[in-house]
Design goal:
By secondary structure, the protein is an alpha/beta fold. The protein has helices at residues 6-12, 38-50, 65-71, 110-122, 134-137, 140-151, 162-169, 179-190, 224-237, 242-264, 271-287, and strands spanning 27-31, 55-60, 76-79, 97-101, 127-129, 156-158, 193-196, 201-204, 209-212. Bound molecules: ligand NAX and adenosine-5'-diphosphate (ADP). (6S)-NADPHX binds at residues 40, 102, 161, 226.
Length: 291
C-alpha cells in the first residue's frame, strides 16, 4: 500500500515558518553544468528556487559561470575551481542543506568524477547524484564511497533515466527488464534511494518501491530531468527525508508537466515550462481535498 496519498504529500509541502530566514529554509549546493551543457545547471537552479530552497549556490565550470548567472540574479554562482578549497557542506537542524551533483556534467571530462567523489566523501548532508555524474558513481571508487555514506548514515539519492540505470546496474549484473525490481535492487546494491525515471517513475529505498504514474509524455523533452533533480535537491536541502523528497518532488514535477500541457498542448511543453507551472502544481496540491 502506497502511503503517499494526497493528504501525506500535502503535509510534506515545505511552507516557510513565520520566523524563517534564507538559511533556515535550506541551502542547496548545486554542482551542475559544463561547457557543453550550461543549460542543465540553469534549469536545475531555477527549479530548486521555485521548490522553496532559501539559498541556491551553483558551482559550475568556469566557462558556464556567466550563462548561469544571467538566468537568475538571485543565484549565487561560483566556478568549480574553488570547490576543492571550500569547507564541506554540513547539514544541521537549524541550517539544513544538501548537495546535488551531476546535472549537465559531461561524462567525458575528468572533473566529473573528481567533483562527484569530493561531494560523496566530504558532504555531511544528503547528496543527490544525477545526469553525467551517474557513470562515475558506477565506478569502483563511486560505489565504495556510496556504500561508506550508507554505513555512516549519510543519505544518497540517485535519479537515473533508463540508460543511466543500465550503467549503474552493470557492475552488479542486475537485470534491467522490470523497472520496479531494478529500482529496488539498485537501491540495495548502492545503499541509496533511487528515482528510476520513465513514463512511470519508480522510487525505492530498498524496502519498498513506489510507482509515481502521474506524468505525461509531454515531459519527454531535453532538460525535464534536470528540473526534477533541482526540485528533489531543493526538498532535501529543506530537510525532508530522502524518500519523502523523492515522492513529493516527482509528483509535483509530473503535475506541473500535466498542467503545462493542458495550457500549452502536449507538443509545446518545454523544461522551462515545467518550472513555470510548478507554482500551479503546488497550489493545486495545497487546495485539493481528499486523501
Ligand atoms: N539543456 C541542457 O544543458 C541539457 C543537458 N543535459 C545533460 O546532458 C548530459 C547527458 O545526458 P543524456 O541523457 O543526454 O546522455 P546519456 O548519454 O547519459 O544517455 C543517453 C543515452 O542513454 C540511452 N537511453 C536509454 N534509456 C533512456 C531513457 N529512458 N532516457 C534517455 N536516454 C536513454 C539513449 O538511447 C542514449 O544512448 C547530462 O549531464 C544531462 O544532465 C540533458 O539533460 C539535456 C538538456
Ligand atoms: N513518456 C513519458 N511519460 C511521462 N514522463 C516522462 C516520459 N518521458 C520522460 N518523462 C519524464 O521526463 C523526465 C526526463 O528526464 P531525463 O531523461 O533525465 O531528461 P534530461 O536528461 O533531458 O533532463 C523524467 O522525469 C521522466 O520521468
Amino acid at each position: 500500500m502506497n502511503p503517499y496519498g494526497k493528504a501525506r504529500l500535502r503535509e510534506l509541502l515545505p511552507h516557510p515558518s513565520e520566523g524563517a530566514n534564507k538559511y533556515t529554509r535550506g541551502k542547496l549546493v548545486l554542482m551542475a553544468g559544463s561547457a557543453a551543457y550550461p543549460g542543465a545547471a540553469c534549469l536545475s537552479a531555477l527549479a530548486s528556487q521555485r521548490m522553496g530552497a532559501g539559498y541556491t549556490e551553483v558551482i559550475t565550470d568556469k566557462r558556464a559561470v556567466e550563462t548561469v548567472r544571467s538566468v537568475g540574479p538571485s543565484l549565487v554562482v561560483a566556478s568549480d575551481e574553488a570547490w576543492f578549497d571550500r569547507p564541506p557542506a554540513v547539514a544541521t537542524e537549524k541550517h539544513p542543506c544538501a548537495v546535488a551533483v551531476g546535472s549537465g556534467f559531461d561524462s567525458g571530462e575528468g572533473r566529473t568524477a573528481r567533483l562527484l567523489f569530493c561531494a560523496l566523501e566530504d558532504a555531511d548532508a544528503p547528496v543527490l547524484v544525477d545526469g553525467g555524474a551517474l557513470g562515475a558513481l558506477a565506478s569502483d571508487e563511486g560505489r565504495a564511497l556510496c556504500k561508506r555514506r550508507f554505513v555512516e548514515g549519510r543519505p544518497t539519492v540517485a535519479t537515473p533515466h533508463g540508460g543511466e540505470a543500465a550503467r549503474l546496474a552493470k557492475p552488479f549484473d542486475l537485470p534491467c527488464d522490470d523497472p520496479s525490481r531494478l529500482a529496488r535492487s539498485l537501491s540495495l546494491a548502492y545503499g541509496m534511494v533511487v528515482v528510476l525515471k520513465g513514463p512511470d517513475t519508480w522510487i525505492s529505498d530498498g524496502d519498498d518501491a513506489f510507482c509515481m504514474d502521474e506524468g505525461t509524455a509531454a515531459l519527454s523533452k531535453a532538460g525535464t530531468g534536470d528540473v526534477l533533480a533541482g526540485m528533489i535537491g531543493s526538498l532535501l536541502a529543506q530537510g525532508l527525508d530522502p524518500l519523502d523528497a523523492c515522492m513529493l518532488g516527482s509528483t509535483l514535477h509530473a503535475r506541473a508537466g500535466k498542467m503545462a500541457a493542458d495550457e500549452l498542448t502536449d507538443i509545446c511543453v518545454s523544461a522551462e515550462d515545467v518550472v513555470r507551472f510548478l507554482p500551479h502544481a503546488i497550489r493545486s496540491l495545497s487546495s485539493e481535498g481528499g486523501r
